[in-house]
Amino acid sequence: MVLRRVIGYLTLAAALAACSSVPRAEREAQRRADYEAAAGPNQHSFRFFGNLWSWEPLGKDLLAVYTRPNEAWLLTVGGCIDLEYTNAIGLTSNFHEVSVGFDKVLTGRRDFPCFITAIRPVNVKQLKAAQEQRRTIEEKPREAASKPDG
Fold first, then answer.
1. Is residue 55 within 8 Å of residue 89, measured between CB atoms?
2. Could you tell me the pTM of the whole model?
3. Domain boundaries, the chain
4. DSSP 8-state code for residue 69
């Protein structure tokens, strides 16, 4: 009975894992491309008042940080170790300003800060529109079932 239950759970887990129609690497590459397409030109700095609303690593050298729900910045970074796997980040700043060439992204590995080499503002509305467009579901009418003879 227990063995049958364990086999059932393993089968369910395998089936759910197989349900993902897009491989993880492809999803991550698309997410990165969406952010890069929605990002504006490089700028020297942005205002930062000490609180991050959200953040998302987009590879070893790219990070999206949200300072407000509708205000995001795309940071190109160098020197990061395991940025994709860190649980928390911080940003250095000077007088509430994060600047290229001076400030860093701090991860759990304090010995290896990530130096900010580029800052680009993200058009969050454009980013969300691109993501919503990809989420559309194709709908087809169901074929009429044939009635059994009886």
1. yes
2. 0.73
3. 23-133
4. T
